[in-house]
Specification:
Length: 77
């Protein structure tokens, strides 16, 4: 049994609409990819909190550049 993020593993897509223009929001990837432990720009203590059982993704609207963070519940496989 393993807990994985359905978005990171392409099991699921973002099913959210942009609150501004109604366009489909797309996945920009896990925040871990932006602010991972090897990022030169962030110190460990300033990393965003990844809540237990969730993978936080950066999602954005390709139409109006709205972006948000989305906590995706991990699934057990
Ligand atoms: Zn993920
Ligand atoms: Zn939009």
């Amino acid at each position: 049994m393993e807990q994985v993020c359905p978005l990171c593993n392409a099991m699921q897509t973002v099913a959210e609409e942009c609150p501004y223009c109604g366009n489909n929001i797309v996945d920009g990837g896990s925040l871990n990819n932006y602010l991972g432990p090897y990022s030169p720009y962030m110190e460990a203590k300033s990393l965003p909190l990844q809540p237990e059982g969730y993978c936080v993704h950066l999602v954005y609207c390709p139409e109006c550049q709205y972006d948000a963070r989305l906590a995706v519940a991990l699934v057990t496989i």
